[in-house]
Design a protein that fits this description.
Blueprint (H helix, E strand, L loop, with lengths): L1 E7 L7 E6 L17 E8 L9 H8 L1
Antiparallel strand pairs: 1-2, 1-3
């Protein structure tokens, strides 16, 4: 997954937002919520999914 910072291409609007997409091709489907114009990407980064596990002491209590 990719995180993307986007800005509206309409200078009068210039709304900035962040989105999460699975591919760069998905960016062509995104439009500005404020005026409906196309969005231009400012920054792209890889999103790393993290899973939080329970602490070992809590798992031991459940086993007992």
């Amino acid at each position: 997954m990719l995180g993307v910072e986007l800005i509206c291409t309409d200078e009068a609007c210039a709304e900035v937002k962040e989105a999460t997409v699975f591919s760069l091709e998905e960016l062509t489907l995104l439009t500005c919520d404020g005026c409906g114009c196309t969005l231009q990407s400012l920054n792209v980064w890889e999103v790393v999914e993290m899973r939080v596990s329970r602490p070992a002491t809590e798992q031991l209590r459940r086993a007992a």
